[in-house]
Each structure stands twice: as structure tokens, then as C-alpha cells.
Design a protein that fits this description.
The chain is an alpha+beta fold. It has two domains: about 1-40; about 40-90, Irregular (HU Protein, Chain A), CATH 4.10.520.10. Helix content is about 45%, strand content about 30%. The chain is built from three helices and five strands; from the N terminus they run H-H-E-E-E-E-E-H. The strands form two sheets. It has a three-stranded antiparallel sheet. It has a two-stranded antiparallel sheet with strand order 3-4. Helix 1 packs across helix 2 (about 20-35). It is elongated. The chain starts with a helix and ends with a helix.
Length: about 90
Amino acid sequence: MKKQDFIKAVAATAWLSQDAVSKTLTSMIDVITAELKAGNEVNITGFGAFKVSSRASRNGVNPRTGESIKIPSMNSPVFRAGKTLKEAVR
């Protein structure tokens, strides 16, 4: 499902305009992104949690040349599904 399909489905289910759902979804993504940038965790009860995970630097190999390279440390977003979501999918 693509973003526009998701917006149409939510708009139909919630009896809202697609424009309102689109603005709400964009705002939600912006808030989650800002919180993760600040190093905070975002918990949505019944759905899951977004957090930032730190990855240590490591050595890797360039698959084309076989050359050894150093991969720098970085922060990566992580989503952990909540109990309700896990049970619904099972």
C-alpha cells in the first residue's frame, strides 16, 4: 500500500477529507521525525514504539573490488511493534 492509497483508505474509514488526512499524516511524520532527531522515543500505545538505535563503526568489504572499507558509526530509526499490533497480525 502506497501513501496515497493509505490516505484514501483512512479518509473513507474515518469519514474525513483526503486533504485533512494527508495534512494529519504529514504532521504526524514530522513530529515523530523531530522527536527521533532530538533522541527521544515515541510510544503509541497499542501500536508500537519508534526509537533511535546507535550502530557502532565496523569494517566492511566493497563487493565490486573486494577492498576493505571502514563503515562509520551512525544512528538509525527503529520501530518495535506493540503487543496489540503483534496479536492482530498473528
